[in-house]
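Title: Prediction job returns without error message
Component: structure pipeline
Severity: low
Priority: P3
Assignee: unassigned

Description:
Job completed but the reporter wants confirmation the result is attached to the right record. Sequence as submitted:
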Amino acid sequence: MDSKHRRDFLKLCVASIPALAFANVVSADEKKSQAVAQPAYRTPGSLEPYIDPLPIPKRLMPHGTSKDQYRVRMLEFKQPMHSQLPPTRLWGYEGQYPGPTIEALRGRSIVVQWENHLPAQHIFEIDPHIHGAMPPTPAVRTVPHLHGSRSRSESDGLPEKWFAAGSSARYDYPNSQPAATLWYHDHALGITRMNVYAGLSGFFLLRDDEERSMDLPSGDYEIPLLLQDRTLDDQGQLVYSPTHDDGLKLPPGVWGPEFFGDLPAVNGAIYPYLNVEPRPYRLRILNGCNSRFLNVSFNLAKSPTDIPSLITFHQIGTDGGFLPKPAALNKVLLGPAERADLIADFSGLEGKIVTLSNNAPAPFPGWEMATTTHAALYEFMQFRVSLPISNKGKSFSMPPAIAFTQLDETKAVATRDFVLSELMDDKGRSLGLRINDKGYDDPVTEHVKLGSIEKWRFINTTEDAHPMHLHLVQFQVLQRQGFNAGAFRNGTLEFMGAPRPPQANEAGWKDTAVVNPRDVLTIIVRFEGYTGRYLFHCHMLEHEDNDMMRPFEVVPEG
Protein backbone atom coordinates (compact mmCIF):
# COMPACT_ATOMS: atom_id res chain seq x y z
CA MET A 1 0.00 0.00 0.00
CA ASP A 2 1.50 3.40 -1.04
CA SER A 3 1.73 6.36 1.33
CA LYS A 4 -1.37 8.12 -0.10
CA HIS A 5 -3.63 5.10 0.27
CA ARG A 6 -2.18 4.42 3.73
CA ARG A 7 -3.09 7.99 4.85
CA ASP A 8 -6.62 7.61 3.41
CA PHE A 9 -7.06 4.28 5.18
CA LEU A 10 -5.90 5.75 8.53
CA LYS A 11 -8.29 8.70 8.14
CA LEU A 12 -11.15 6.27 7.50
CA CYS A 13 -10.22 4.25 10.57
CA VAL A 14 -10.02 7.35 12.78
CA ALA A 15 -13.36 8.58 11.46
CA SER A 16 -14.93 5.21 12.21
CA ILE A 17 -13.85 5.05 15.88
CA PRO A 18 -16.62 7.34 17.26
CA ALA A 19 -19.24 5.47 15.30
CA LEU A 20 -17.99 2.12 16.60
CA ALA A 21 -17.88 3.45 20.14
CA PHE A 22 -21.43 4.79 19.81
CA ALA A 23 -22.56 1.46 18.42
CA ASN A 24 -21.11 -0.30 21.46
CA VAL A 25 -22.87 2.14 23.81
CA VAL A 26 -26.24 1.56 22.07
CA SER A 27 -25.76 -2.17 22.24
CA ALA A 28 -25.14 -1.96 25.99
CA ASP A 29 -28.21 0.24 26.45
CA GLU A 30 -30.29 -2.21 24.49
CA LYS A 31 -29.09 -5.03 26.68
CA LYS A 32 -29.90 -3.00 29.77
CA SER A 33 -33.34 -2.18 28.38
CA GLN A 34 -33.99 -5.81 27.57
CA ALA A 35 -32.94 -6.81 31.06
CA VAL A 36 -35.38 -4.29 32.54
CA ALA A 37 -38.20 -5.45 30.23
CA GLN A 38 -37.66 -9.11 31.10
CA PRO A 39 -40.31 -10.09 33.68
CA ALA A 40 -39.01 -11.11 37.09
CA TYR A 41 -40.43 -14.62 37.10
CA ARG A 42 -40.97 -16.46 40.36
CA THR A 43 -41.40 -20.05 41.36
CA PRO A 44 -45.01 -21.23 41.77
CA GLY A 45 -44.62 -21.40 45.55
CA SER A 46 -43.60 -17.73 45.85
CA LEU A 47 -46.28 -16.08 43.68
CA GLU A 48 -47.97 -12.92 44.89
CA PRO A 49 -51.69 -13.59 45.09
CA TYR A 50 -54.35 -11.23 43.80
CA ILE A 51 -52.26 -9.09 41.45
CA ASP A 52 -53.91 -10.27 38.21
CA PRO A 53 -57.46 -9.50 37.05
CA LEU A 54 -59.92 -12.32 36.51
CA PRO A 55 -60.14 -13.36 32.84
CA ILE A 56 -63.65 -13.69 31.44
CA PRO A 57 -63.92 -16.34 28.68
CA LYS A 58 -64.87 -14.89 25.32
CA ARG A 59 -68.19 -15.81 23.75
CA LEU A 60 -67.95 -18.12 20.74
CA MET A 61 -69.49 -16.58 17.62
CA PRO A 62 -71.18 -18.60 14.83
CA HIS A 63 -69.00 -19.74 11.95
CA GLY A 64 -69.77 -18.25 8.56
CA THR A 65 -73.16 -16.82 7.65
CA SER A 66 -75.34 -19.27 9.56
CA LYS A 67 -76.38 -18.33 13.10
CA ASP A 68 -76.55 -21.97 14.19
CA GLN A 69 -73.25 -23.32 12.82
CA TYR A 70 -70.13 -23.27 15.00
CA ARG A 71 -66.56 -24.36 14.49
CA VAL A 72 -64.36 -25.26 17.47
CA ARG A 73 -60.71 -26.16 17.02
CA MET A 74 -58.65 -27.94 19.66
CA LEU A 75 -55.22 -26.30 19.65
CA GLU A 76 -51.95 -26.24 21.54
CA PHE A 77 -50.80 -22.78 22.63
CA LYS A 78 -49.10 -20.88 25.45
CA GLN A 79 -50.96 -18.67 27.91
CA PRO A 80 -49.76 -17.05 31.17
CA MET A 81 -51.60 -18.31 34.24
CA HIS A 82 -50.01 -15.62 36.44
CA SER A 83 -48.07 -12.46 35.59
CA GLN A 84 -45.09 -13.70 37.61
CA LEU A 85 -44.85 -16.91 35.61
CA PRO A 86 -43.76 -17.55 32.03
CA PRO A 87 -46.53 -18.64 29.63
CA THR A 88 -47.78 -22.17 30.23
CA ARG A 89 -48.10 -24.75 27.48
CA LEU A 90 -51.79 -25.69 27.27
CA TRP A 91 -54.44 -27.33 25.15
CA GLY A 92 -57.69 -25.48 24.63
CA TYR A 93 -60.75 -25.00 22.49
CA GLU A 94 -60.09 -22.20 19.99
CA GLY A 95 -56.65 -21.72 21.53
CA GLN A 96 -57.79 -20.47 24.91
CA TYR A 97 -58.16 -21.85 28.43
CA PRO A 98 -60.93 -22.13 29.40
CA GLY A 99 -62.56 -22.52 26.02
CA PRO A 100 -64.93 -19.85 24.71
CA THR A 101 -68.40 -19.72 26.23
CA ILE A 102 -71.11 -21.08 23.94
CA GLU A 103 -74.55 -19.54 24.42
CA ALA A 104 -77.68 -21.17 22.98
CA LEU A 105 -81.45 -20.73 23.14
CA ARG A 106 -83.90 -23.36 24.26
CA GLY A 107 -85.60 -25.02 21.29
CA ARG A 108 -83.06 -23.75 18.78
CA SER A 109 -80.63 -26.46 17.75
CA ILE A 110 -77.03 -25.74 16.86
CA VAL A 111 -74.36 -27.71 15.02
CA VAL A 112 -70.75 -27.73 16.17
CA GLN A 113 -67.85 -28.90 14.05
CA TRP A 114 -65.22 -30.10 16.51
CA GLU A 115 -61.73 -30.20 14.95
CA ASN A 116 -58.65 -31.81 16.48
CA HIS A 117 -55.60 -29.70 15.55
CA LEU A 118 -53.44 -30.92 18.43
CA PRO A 119 -49.86 -32.17 17.95
CA ALA A 120 -49.03 -35.86 17.73
CA GLN A 121 -47.26 -35.85 21.11
CA HIS A 122 -49.25 -35.56 24.34
CA ILE A 123 -48.27 -32.98 26.96
CA PHE A 124 -48.17 -35.71 29.61
CA GLU A 125 -46.91 -39.28 29.75
CA ILE A 126 -49.72 -41.78 29.26
CA ASP A 127 -50.22 -44.98 31.22
CA PRO A 128 -50.45 -47.65 28.48
CA HIS A 129 -51.97 -50.18 30.89
CA ILE A 130 -55.22 -48.23 31.32
CA HIS A 131 -58.23 -49.50 29.45
CA GLY A 132 -58.66 -47.43 26.30
CA ALA A 133 -55.06 -46.16 26.29
CA MET A 134 -53.32 -49.39 25.34
CA PRO A 135 -51.21 -49.53 22.14
CA PRO A 136 -51.73 -49.16 19.24
CA THR A 137 -54.21 -46.46 20.31
CA PRO A 138 -52.78 -43.02 19.40
CA ALA A 139 -51.58 -40.92 22.31
CA VAL A 140 -53.44 -37.79 21.19
CA ARG A 141 -57.16 -38.21 20.66
CA THR A 142 -60.23 -36.28 21.75
CA VAL A 143 -64.00 -36.50 21.90
CA PRO A 144 -66.05 -33.55 23.23
CA HIS A 145 -68.94 -34.15 25.62
CA LEU A 146 -71.57 -31.48 26.32
CA HIS A 147 -72.14 -32.25 29.98
CA GLY A 148 -75.81 -32.01 30.97
CA SER A 149 -77.14 -31.96 27.42
CA ARG A 150 -80.05 -34.04 26.15
CA SER A 151 -78.55 -35.06 22.81
CA ARG A 152 -78.65 -38.05 20.50
CA SER A 153 -76.15 -40.78 21.25
CA GLU A 154 -74.09 -40.00 18.15
CA SER A 155 -73.59 -36.43 19.44
CA ASP A 156 -73.13 -37.30 23.11
CA GLY A 157 -69.36 -37.72 23.03
CA LEU A 158 -69.08 -41.38 23.98
CA PRO A 159 -65.53 -42.10 25.20
CA GLU A 160 -64.78 -44.71 22.55
CA LYS A 161 -65.85 -42.37 19.72
CA TRP A 162 -62.57 -40.41 19.92
CA PHE A 163 -60.88 -38.96 16.87
CA ALA A 164 -57.17 -38.39 16.40
CA ALA A 165 -55.21 -35.27 15.48
CA GLY A 166 -56.13 -34.11 11.99
CA SER A 167 -59.71 -35.42 12.25
CA SER A 168 -63.03 -33.88 13.24
CA ALA A 169 -66.60 -34.68 14.27
CA ARG A 170 -69.90 -32.89 13.68
CA TYR A 171 -72.35 -32.85 16.61
CA ASP A 172 -75.94 -31.65 16.77
CA TYR A 173 -77.30 -30.12 19.98
CA PRO A 174 -81.11 -29.71 19.98
CA ASN A 175 -81.19 -27.65 23.22
CA SER A 176 -84.67 -28.98 24.01
CA GLN A 177 -84.42 -28.46 27.75
CA PRO A 178 -84.71 -25.62 30.28
CA ALA A 179 -82.09 -22.90 30.74
CA ALA A 180 -79.09 -24.19 32.67
CA THR A 181 -75.35 -23.90 33.27
CA LEU A 182 -73.88 -26.69 31.14
CA TRP A 183 -70.25 -27.22 30.21
CA TYR A 184 -68.24 -29.02 27.58
CA HIS A 185 -65.05 -31.00 28.09
CA ASP A 186 -63.04 -33.82 26.61
CA HIS A 187 -64.11 -37.41 27.28
CA ALA A 188 -61.58 -39.60 25.42
CA LEU A 189 -61.39 -43.12 26.81
CA GLY A 190 -58.48 -43.70 29.17
CA ILE A 191 -57.07 -40.14 29.01
CA THR A 192 -59.98 -37.89 30.01
CA ARG A 193 -58.13 -36.87 33.19
CA MET A 194 -55.11 -35.58 31.27
CA ASN A 195 -56.98 -33.95 28.38
CA VAL A 196 -59.18 -31.93 30.74
CA TYR A 197 -56.19 -31.11 32.93
CA ALA A 198 -54.36 -29.81 29.84
CA GLY A 199 -57.16 -27.24 29.42
CA LEU A 200 -59.97 -28.82 27.36
CA SER A 201 -63.09 -27.46 29.07
CA GLY A 202 -65.48 -24.52 28.70
CA PHE A 203 -68.94 -23.16 29.58
CA PHE A 204 -72.16 -23.74 27.62
CA LEU A 205 -74.96 -21.45 28.80
CA LEU A 206 -78.45 -22.45 27.71
CA ARG A 207 -81.04 -19.68 27.97
CA ASP A 208 -84.84 -19.48 27.67
CA ASP A 209 -87.78 -17.10 28.05
CA GLU A 210 -88.34 -17.97 31.71
CA GLU A 211 -84.79 -16.89 32.50
CA ARG A 212 -85.28 -13.62 30.56
CA SER A 213 -88.43 -12.82 32.55
CA MET A 214 -86.53 -12.93 35.84
CA ASP A 215 -84.43 -9.79 35.22
CA LEU A 216 -81.37 -11.48 36.66
CA PRO A 217 -77.99 -9.72 36.72
CA SER A 218 -76.60 -9.94 33.19
CA GLY A 219 -73.82 -8.62 31.00
CA ASP A 220 -70.96 -7.39 33.19
CA TYR A 221 -72.88 -8.62 36.24
CA GLU A 222 -73.09 -12.28 35.17
CA ILE A 223 -69.73 -13.98 35.69
CA PRO A 224 -68.84 -17.61 34.85
CA LEU A 225 -66.28 -19.04 37.27
CA LEU A 226 -64.47 -22.27 36.40
CA LEU A 227 -62.69 -23.43 39.57
CA GLN A 228 -59.79 -25.86 39.15
CA ASP A 229 -56.54 -26.85 40.85
CA ARG A 230 -53.21 -27.03 39.06
CA THR A 231 -49.57 -27.87 39.80
CA LEU A 232 -46.75 -26.06 37.97
CA ASP A 233 -43.01 -26.64 37.85
CA ASP A 234 -40.41 -23.88 38.33
CA GLN A 235 -40.69 -23.00 34.62
CA GLY A 236 -44.43 -22.42 34.99
CA GLN A 237 -45.40 -25.59 33.10
CA LEU A 238 -48.19 -27.99 34.03
CA VAL A 239 -47.26 -31.01 36.09
CA TYR A 240 -49.71 -33.90 36.24
CA SER A 241 -48.66 -35.88 39.30
CA PRO A 242 -51.34 -38.24 40.63
CA THR A 243 -51.02 -39.99 43.97
CA HIS A 244 -52.23 -42.99 45.89
CA ASP A 245 -54.87 -42.48 48.56
CA ASP A 246 -52.11 -42.16 51.16
CA GLY A 247 -50.53 -39.26 49.26
CA LEU A 248 -47.63 -41.26 47.81
CA LYS A 249 -46.67 -39.76 44.45
CA LEU A 250 -46.42 -42.01 41.43
CA PRO A 251 -43.83 -42.02 38.63
CA PRO A 252 -44.74 -40.06 35.48
CA GLY A 253 -47.03 -42.04 33.23
CA VAL A 254 -48.48 -44.24 35.98
CA TRP A 255 -52.20 -44.00 36.83
CA GLY A 256 -53.14 -42.95 40.35
CA PRO A 257 -56.60 -42.76 41.95
CA GLU A 258 -56.52 -39.03 42.67
CA PHE A 259 -54.93 -35.75 41.71
CA PHE A 260 -54.83 -32.59 43.85
CA GLY A 261 -53.09 -29.50 42.51
CA ASP A 262 -51.08 -27.05 44.60
CA LEU A 263 -52.53 -23.85 43.15
CA PRO A 264 -56.08 -22.56 42.63
CA ALA A 265 -57.06 -21.49 39.13
CA VAL A 266 -60.17 -19.49 38.26
CA ASN A 267 -60.91 -19.19 34.54
CA GLY A 268 -57.32 -20.25 33.96
CA ALA A 269 -55.73 -17.61 36.23
CA ILE A 270 -53.99 -18.29 39.55
CA TYR A 271 -55.31 -16.21 42.47
CA PRO A 272 -57.10 -13.55 40.36
CA TYR A 273 -59.21 -10.65 41.55
CA LEU A 274 -62.37 -9.01 40.20
CA ASN A 275 -63.39 -5.41 40.84
CA VAL A 276 -67.13 -5.28 41.47
CA GLU A 277 -69.82 -2.74 42.24
CA PRO A 278 -71.85 -2.77 45.47
CA ARG A 279 -74.76 -4.60 43.84
CA PRO A 280 -75.97 -8.19 43.22
CA TYR A 281 -73.98 -10.35 40.79
CA ARG A 282 -74.90 -13.63 39.18
CA LEU A 283 -72.02 -16.11 39.51
CA ARG A 284 -72.14 -19.34 37.46
CA ILE A 285 -69.76 -21.58 39.42
CA LEU A 286 -68.41 -24.87 38.06
CA ASN A 287 -66.16 -27.29 39.93
CA GLY A 288 -63.87 -28.34 37.06
CA CYS A 289 -61.30 -30.11 39.25
CA ASN A 290 -60.12 -33.62 38.51
CA SER A 291 -60.62 -34.98 42.04
CA ARG A 292 -61.01 -32.05 44.45
CA PHE A 293 -64.33 -31.30 46.15
CA LEU A 294 -65.02 -27.65 46.98
CA ASN A 295 -67.02 -26.22 49.88
CA VAL A 296 -67.32 -22.66 48.66
CA SER A 297 -68.05 -19.53 50.70
CA PHE A 298 -67.70 -15.75 50.46
CA ASN A 299 -65.49 -14.62 53.30
CA LEU A 300 -64.80 -11.10 54.63
CA ALA A 301 -61.98 -12.31 56.89
CA LYS A 302 -58.52 -11.07 55.88
CA SER A 303 -56.79 -14.42 56.26
CA PRO A 304 -57.92 -18.06 55.93
CA THR A 305 -56.67 -18.59 59.49
CA ASP A 306 -58.89 -15.80 60.86
CA ILE A 307 -62.36 -16.49 62.24
CA PRO A 308 -64.59 -16.66 59.14
CA SER A 309 -66.95 -13.79 58.43
CA LEU A 310 -69.23 -15.31 55.81
CA ILE A 311 -71.68 -13.50 53.56
CA THR A 312 -75.07 -15.09 52.95
CA PHE A 313 -75.76 -15.74 49.28
CA HIS A 314 -78.58 -17.41 47.36
CA GLN A 315 -78.40 -20.38 45.07
CA ILE A 316 -81.01 -20.05 42.34
CA GLY A 317 -80.02 -22.96 40.12
CA THR A 318 -78.13 -26.20 39.96
CA ASP A 319 -76.91 -28.56 37.22
CA GLY A 320 -80.17 -28.83 35.28
CA GLY A 321 -81.66 -25.39 35.72
CA PHE A 322 -83.45 -23.21 38.24
CA LEU A 323 -84.37 -24.45 41.69
CA PRO A 324 -88.05 -24.44 42.69
CA LYS A 325 -87.14 -21.50 44.93
CA PRO A 326 -83.86 -19.79 45.89
CA ALA A 327 -81.91 -21.30 48.77
CA ALA A 328 -80.15 -19.00 51.25
CA LEU A 329 -76.69 -20.37 52.10
CA ASN A 330 -73.33 -19.40 53.50
CA LYS A 331 -71.52 -22.40 51.95
CA VAL A 332 -72.15 -24.64 48.96
CA LEU A 333 -70.54 -28.06 48.47
CA LEU A 334 -69.63 -28.95 44.88
CA GLY A 335 -68.19 -32.27 43.78
CA PRO A 336 -66.26 -32.36 40.49
CA ALA A 337 -68.60 -31.42 37.59
CA GLU A 338 -71.36 -29.97 39.80
CA ARG A 339 -72.55 -26.42 39.10
CA ALA A 340 -74.15 -23.75 41.24
CA ASP A 341 -75.98 -20.70 39.89
CA LEU A 342 -75.56 -18.09 42.63
CA ILE A 343 -76.64 -14.56 43.46
CA ALA A 344 -73.96 -12.85 45.56
CA ASP A 345 -74.95 -9.39 46.79
CA PHE A 346 -72.09 -6.97 47.43
CA SER A 347 -74.43 -4.12 48.36
CA GLY A 348 -73.29 -2.22 51.44
CA LEU A 349 -69.76 -3.63 51.20
CA GLU A 350 -68.08 -0.61 49.60
CA GLY A 351 -64.33 -0.74 50.11
CA LYS A 352 -64.42 -4.34 51.33
CA ILE A 353 -62.58 -7.37 49.96
CA VAL A 354 -64.53 -10.62 49.74
CA THR A 355 -62.54 -13.83 49.27
CA LEU A 356 -63.98 -16.85 47.48
CA SER A 357 -62.94 -19.49 50.02
CA ASN A 358 -62.97 -23.28 50.32
CA ASN A 359 -62.63 -25.58 53.30
CA ALA A 360 -63.24 -29.03 51.81
CA PRO A 361 -60.51 -31.54 52.71
CA ALA A 362 -58.68 -33.57 50.07
CA PRO A 363 -59.50 -36.40 49.62
CA PHE A 364 -63.14 -35.79 50.48
CA PRO A 365 -64.71 -36.24 52.96
CA GLY A 366 -61.50 -37.23 54.72
CA TRP A 367 -63.19 -39.16 57.50
CA GLU A 368 -60.51 -41.87 57.59
CA MET A 369 -57.55 -39.48 57.38
CA ALA A 370 -55.38 -39.49 60.51
CA THR A 371 -53.03 -36.97 58.92
CA THR A 372 -53.42 -34.53 56.06
CA THR A 373 -51.88 -35.92 52.87
CA HIS A 374 -52.70 -33.02 50.53
CA ALA A 375 -52.49 -29.29 51.05
CA ALA A 376 -55.83 -27.54 51.31
CA LEU A 377 -56.71 -24.74 48.91
CA TYR A 378 -58.36 -22.27 51.24
CA GLU A 379 -58.74 -19.40 48.75
CA PHE A 380 -59.44 -19.07 45.03
CA MET A 381 -60.01 -15.39 44.21
CA GLN A 382 -60.96 -11.97 45.56
CA PHE A 383 -63.93 -9.73 44.85
CA ARG A 384 -62.95 -6.12 45.49
CA VAL A 385 -65.96 -3.90 46.04
CA SER A 386 -64.15 -0.92 44.59
CA LEU A 387 -66.23 0.28 41.61
CA PRO A 388 -68.84 3.02 41.81
CA ILE A 389 -72.34 1.77 41.22
CA SER A 390 -73.43 2.18 37.63
CA ASN A 391 -76.81 3.04 36.18
CA LYS A 392 -76.46 0.47 33.40
CA GLY A 393 -77.30 -2.49 35.62
CA LYS A 394 -80.93 -3.61 35.77
CA SER A 395 -82.93 -3.45 38.96
CA PHE A 396 -82.98 -6.83 40.64
CA SER A 397 -85.23 -8.82 42.92
CA MET A 398 -84.77 -12.44 43.96
CA PRO A 399 -86.51 -14.84 41.54
CA PRO A 400 -89.91 -16.07 42.76
CA ALA A 401 -90.79 -19.73 43.20
CA ILE A 402 -91.19 -21.45 39.85
CA ALA A 403 -93.35 -24.35 38.69
CA PHE A 404 -91.57 -27.59 39.43
CA THR A 405 -92.81 -31.16 38.94
CA GLN A 406 -91.61 -33.72 41.43
CA LEU A 407 -91.27 -37.16 39.86
CA ASP A 408 -93.69 -39.68 41.38
CA GLU A 409 -91.93 -42.60 43.11
CA THR A 410 -94.98 -44.78 42.64
CA LYS A 411 -94.52 -44.51 38.86
CA ALA A 412 -91.01 -46.01 38.99
CA VAL A 413 -91.00 -49.26 37.00
CA ALA A 414 -87.66 -50.48 38.41
CA THR A 415 -85.13 -49.92 41.18
CA ARG A 416 -81.52 -50.61 40.18
CA ASP A 417 -78.61 -50.99 42.58
CA PHE A 418 -75.04 -49.98 41.71
CA VAL A 419 -72.25 -50.95 44.07
CA LEU A 420 -69.24 -48.64 44.00
CA SER A 421 -66.05 -50.52 44.89
CA GLU A 422 -62.27 -50.21 44.69
CA LEU A 423 -59.75 -52.91 43.79
CA MET A 424 -56.76 -52.98 46.15
CA ASP A 425 -53.29 -54.50 46.04
CA ASP A 426 -51.62 -56.26 48.99
CA LYS A 427 -50.43 -52.86 50.28
CA GLY A 428 -53.95 -51.45 50.37
CA ARG A 429 -53.40 -49.23 47.33
CA SER A 430 -55.85 -48.76 44.52
CA LEU A 431 -55.70 -50.77 41.30
CA GLY A 432 -58.84 -49.18 39.91
CA LEU A 433 -62.53 -48.74 40.66
CA ARG A 434 -65.67 -50.51 39.48
CA ILE A 435 -69.45 -50.28 39.37
CA ASN A 436 -71.06 -53.65 40.17
CA ASP A 437 -67.61 -55.22 39.69
CA LYS A 438 -67.69 -54.36 35.99
CA GLY A 439 -65.68 -52.07 33.73
CA TYR A 440 -66.74 -49.95 30.82
CA ASP A 441 -66.22 -52.62 28.14
CA ASP A 442 -68.21 -55.30 29.91
CA PRO A 443 -71.57 -56.05 28.24
CA VAL A 444 -74.42 -53.61 28.82
CA THR A 445 -76.60 -54.75 31.72
CA GLU A 446 -78.92 -51.72 32.03
CA HIS A 447 -81.61 -51.49 29.34
CA VAL A 448 -84.12 -48.75 30.16
CA LYS A 449 -87.27 -47.88 28.27
CA LEU A 450 -87.69 -44.47 26.69
CA GLY A 451 -90.18 -42.43 28.72
CA SER A 452 -89.99 -44.69 31.77
CA ILE A 453 -89.23 -43.62 35.34
CA GLU A 454 -86.74 -45.58 37.47
CA LYS A 455 -85.03 -45.32 40.82
CA TRP A 456 -81.27 -45.83 40.88
CA ARG A 457 -79.39 -46.50 44.12
CA PHE A 458 -75.63 -45.97 44.39
CA ILE A 459 -74.12 -47.97 47.26
CA ASN A 460 -70.69 -46.63 48.22
CA THR A 461 -68.37 -49.24 49.78
CA THR A 462 -65.23 -47.09 49.33
CA GLU A 463 -63.61 -44.48 51.57
CA ASP A 464 -64.10 -41.61 49.09
CA ALA A 465 -67.17 -39.61 48.18
CA HIS A 466 -68.07 -40.01 44.49
CA PRO A 467 -69.91 -37.49 42.26
CA MET A 468 -72.05 -39.79 40.09
CA HIS A 469 -73.05 -38.45 36.67
CA LEU A 470 -75.63 -39.71 34.16
CA HIS A 471 -75.49 -38.73 30.50
CA LEU A 472 -78.65 -37.74 28.53
CA VAL A 473 -80.89 -37.10 31.55
CA GLN A 474 -81.44 -34.82 34.49
CA PHE A 475 -82.64 -36.52 37.67
CA GLN A 476 -83.92 -35.68 41.14
CA VAL A 477 -82.27 -36.68 44.43
CA LEU A 478 -84.69 -38.62 46.63
CA GLN A 479 -82.60 -39.39 49.71
CA ARG A 480 -79.34 -40.52 51.26
CA GLN A 481 -79.09 -43.16 53.97
CA GLY A 482 -76.37 -45.08 55.76
CA PHE A 483 -76.01 -48.85 55.57
CA ASN A 484 -74.39 -51.63 57.58
CA ALA A 485 -71.10 -52.37 55.81
CA GLY A 486 -70.61 -55.68 57.63
CA ALA A 487 -74.05 -56.97 56.69
CA PHE A 488 -73.53 -55.82 53.12
CA ARG A 489 -70.33 -57.86 52.84
CA ASN A 490 -72.49 -60.86 53.70
CA GLY A 491 -74.95 -60.00 50.95
CA THR A 492 -77.59 -58.00 52.83
CA LEU A 493 -78.36 -54.32 52.29
CA GLU A 494 -79.31 -53.21 55.80
CA PHE A 495 -80.08 -49.50 56.12
CA MET A 496 -78.95 -47.55 59.18
CA GLY A 497 -80.28 -44.27 60.51
CA ALA A 498 -83.08 -42.20 59.06
CA PRO A 499 -83.16 -41.35 55.35
CA ARG A 500 -81.94 -37.83 54.66
CA PRO A 501 -83.82 -35.80 52.05
CA PRO A 502 -81.89 -33.56 49.66
CA GLN A 503 -80.71 -30.18 50.85
CA ALA A 504 -82.74 -27.21 49.64
CA ASN A 505 -80.04 -26.27 47.11
CA GLU A 506 -80.13 -29.69 45.38
CA ALA A 507 -83.92 -30.13 45.37
CA GLY A 508 -84.07 -29.41 41.64
CA TRP A 509 -82.81 -31.07 38.47
CA LYS A 510 -79.36 -32.62 38.72
CA ASP A 511 -77.05 -34.55 36.42
CA THR A 512 -74.32 -35.13 39.04
CA ALA A 513 -74.82 -35.96 42.72
CA VAL A 514 -72.50 -36.94 45.56
CA VAL A 515 -72.65 -40.28 47.37
CA ASN A 516 -70.64 -40.37 50.60
CA PRO A 517 -68.76 -43.36 52.02
CA ARG A 518 -71.04 -45.98 53.60
CA ASP A 519 -74.05 -44.20 52.16
CA VAL A 520 -76.73 -45.09 49.65
CA LEU A 521 -77.74 -42.28 47.30
CA THR A 522 -81.18 -42.79 45.74
CA ILE A 523 -82.18 -40.79 42.67
CA ILE A 524 -85.28 -40.87 40.49
CA VAL A 525 -84.94 -40.35 36.77
CA ARG A 526 -87.17 -40.23 33.71
CA PHE A 527 -85.38 -41.44 30.58
CA GLU A 528 -86.58 -38.95 28.00
CA GLY A 529 -85.17 -37.66 24.78
CA TYR A 530 -83.63 -40.35 22.61
CA THR A 531 -82.91 -44.03 22.33
CA GLY A 532 -79.35 -45.32 22.05
CA ARG A 533 -76.22 -45.93 24.07
CA TYR A 534 -75.22 -43.59 26.91
CA LEU A 535 -73.17 -43.90 30.08
CA PHE A 536 -72.96 -43.16 33.78
CA HIS A 537 -69.81 -42.78 35.83
CA CYS A 538 -67.98 -41.17 38.70
CA HIS A 539 -66.85 -37.69 37.67
CA MET A 540 -63.57 -37.86 39.53
CA LEU A 541 -61.61 -38.07 36.30
CA GLU A 542 -58.99 -40.47 37.65
CA HIS A 543 -61.80 -42.83 38.68
CA GLU A 544 -63.72 -42.79 35.42
CA ASP A 545 -60.51 -43.45 33.47
CA ASN A 546 -59.88 -46.68 35.45
CA ASP A 547 -62.69 -47.96 35.23
CA MET A 548 -65.60 -46.46 37.17
CA MET A 549 -67.84 -46.01 34.17
CA ARG A 550 -70.62 -48.12 32.68
CA PRO A 551 -72.86 -47.89 29.60
CA PHE A 552 -76.66 -48.04 29.58
CA GLU A 553 -79.00 -48.49 26.67
CA VAL A 554 -82.25 -46.55 26.14
CA VAL A 555 -84.60 -48.76 24.15
CA PRO A 556 -87.92 -47.87 22.48
CA GLU A 557 -91.00 -48.01 24.66
CA GLY A 558 -92.73 -51.37 24.37
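Comment from assignee: result matches the submitted record. Confidence is low (pLDDT under 50) at residues 1-28, 30-36.
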